[in-house]
Each structure stands twice: as structure tokens, then as C-alpha cells.
Amino acid sequence: MVVSISKEDARLCASVVKEVASSKGIVNDPTAIGRLTAAVARLFNKGLRDRDELMKAALNLDAIK
Fold this sequence. Notes:
mainly alpha
């Protein structure tokens, strides 16, 4: 069952993706952005709802370079 998230939660995930992409230098790589977006969504769905925790976990992902 697909459950939609609130606008605030979507904005949280988008801001984390944007900041991590910028810090990793992958802003112009659509494939890497897609992988990062999916990874952040998985982290969010696993229960990481705090921005700082989500950011820290996303920055530590080895699959996104």
C-alpha cells in the first residue's frame, strides 16, 4: 500500500537531497541524484525523520559518489 507523505516531509527529503548533492559535487549528474533521492527516501521510510540524522546518514552513503 502506497502512503503519501506530507508536503513538509517531502520538502525535508528534497532539502536533504539538495544539500548532500551539493556537498558531494553531484549536482549535475542526474543518475547520481536519482540514486541519492531513492536512498534518502529509504532512510526516511526506515524512520529517520530528524533532519540532522537524515543528513548525517545520507552523507555517509557509500553508493552515492
